[in-house]
Backbone:
């Protein structure tokens, strides 16, 4: 693990050195590319004042709520569509149409209907995270090994028992992958929404810094987005490994 971490840090360190070299050689204006020391100083100020933590807390709360709603909608619907061809026939055309509409394309209409409050952010997160989770759940349920289903039939399993005891356990890996993708999509979609309409959140912090001509704060916001997103993904996988330690396919 230490060697893996060291290898992973090599490229960021090289990019940091190139960044510092570009500043020293005045390749870019300090307004366009502030020095790493300036960015570090701004990071310290935002952390010390609690501003960065406040905006990150707002964004994380929105993501947690939107992701939870998306899971409550996408997983049951994916199971139903994967289990029942008739139910799939009713839903598939509408879902396929909505899947190809980018959530940010609907932002103006969502803001018009829901304003710039929490409802609009929640809607954008759900739209962005729903389909990765739904499609992976559907694929896992629909692609269940037929031999397992035949064993269930031979044991006299009802349709409900087949779903609970065969299809869902067999689809668990696909569902977890869908949840991981949905979590990442939730985070990215939220930042986009906050850049367009928000009064708090990490996206709002970046937009406010751009309007105040503070590229150092913009870079701090970008770094926070990447670091927090990576941490969210890591903690999610760690939780999955703790919940399902016997399933090697769920380990990264």
Residues:
């Amino acid at each position: 693990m230490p060697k893996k971490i060291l290898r992973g840090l090599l490229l960021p360190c090289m990019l940091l050195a190139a960044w510092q070299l570009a500043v020293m050689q005045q390749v870019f204006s300090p307004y366009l590319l502030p020095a790493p020391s300036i960015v570090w100083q701004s990071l310290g100020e935002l952390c010390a004042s609690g501003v960065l933590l406040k905006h990150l807390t707002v964004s994380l709360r929105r993501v947690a709520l939107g992701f939870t709603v998306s899971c409550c909608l996408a997983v049951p619907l994916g199971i139903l569509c994967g289990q029942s061809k008739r139910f799939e026939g009713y839903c598939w055309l509408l879902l396929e149409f909505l899947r190809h509409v980018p959530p940010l394309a609907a932002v103006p209409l969502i803001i018009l209907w829901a304003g710039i409050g929490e409802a609009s952010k929640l809607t954008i997160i759900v739209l962005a995270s729903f389909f990765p989770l739904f499609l992976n759940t559907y694929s896992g349920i629909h692609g269940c090994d037929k031999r397992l289903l035949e064993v269930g039939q031979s044991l006299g399993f009802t349709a409900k028992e087949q779903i609970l005891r065969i299809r869902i356990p067999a689809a668990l890996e696909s569902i977890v992958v869908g949840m991981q993708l949905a979590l990442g999509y939730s985070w990215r979609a939220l930042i986009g929404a906050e850049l367009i309409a928000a009064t708090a959140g990490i996206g709002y912090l970046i937009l406010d810094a751009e309007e105040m001509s503070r590229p150092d704060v913009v870079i701090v916001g970008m770094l926070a987005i990447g670091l927090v997103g990576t941490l969210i993904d890591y903690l999610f996988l760690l939780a999955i490994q703790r919940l399902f330690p016997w399933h090697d396919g769920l380990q990264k």
